[in-house]
Design brief:
This protein is mainly alpha-helical and about 60 residues long. The chain is rod-shaped, with a radius of gyration of 26 Å. Keywords: Membrane, Transmembrane, Transmembrane helix.
């Protein structure tokens, strides 16, 4: 009975870790995909904001 319960607990722990690993892995994959997808977009928007800021600063100086 003891060995059986131990085996059950072990399998539950293994299952839990496997599921959590899969969840973490998939979340990280989604995160990296989103980051790669939006990296260029962020660069473009930052560039545009930089240009806008330069124009605003120029207007303030004048």
């Amino acid at each position: 009975i003891l060995s059986r319960s131990k085996r059950l607990i072990l399998s539950e722990i293994l299952l839990y870790y496997t599921v959590s690993d899969i969840i973490i892995w998939s979340l990280s994959r989604i995160y990296f995909y989103v980051v790669k997808k939006f990296a260029s977009f962020n660069a473009i928007t930052e560039h545009l904001f930089g240009i806008a800021r330069l124009y605003l600063l120029k207007d303030i100086n004048i």
